[in-house]
Amino acid sequence: MPTAQVTAPGEAYAVIESWLSGANLVNCQLYENGLWACELQRPGNYSAWMIWSSAGTDIDVPIPDNSAFTDYRDWQNNVNALPSDLTVGEMPILLENSNP
Q: pTM for the complete prediction?
């Protein structure tokens, strides 16, 4: 493995740190299927949920039609339109209501 190069886990760490930095961690919950969900809030009515699978398998997460979330960010911080059903793996994603 070459040295002095950022690996995928290192990239993910930096992105997730940016999601958490300055945010208020309101609540975390582990569901029976292995899904973790942590609620984040920031000033200006920003809210987000960081979710990931701890089950070792992907988990389908239905997004309610009345959800306040508008998009999601993957672990590389790419912003994507929020579908009505999302598949979540071991790498966290961030559901959010607006760009921070």
A: 0.87
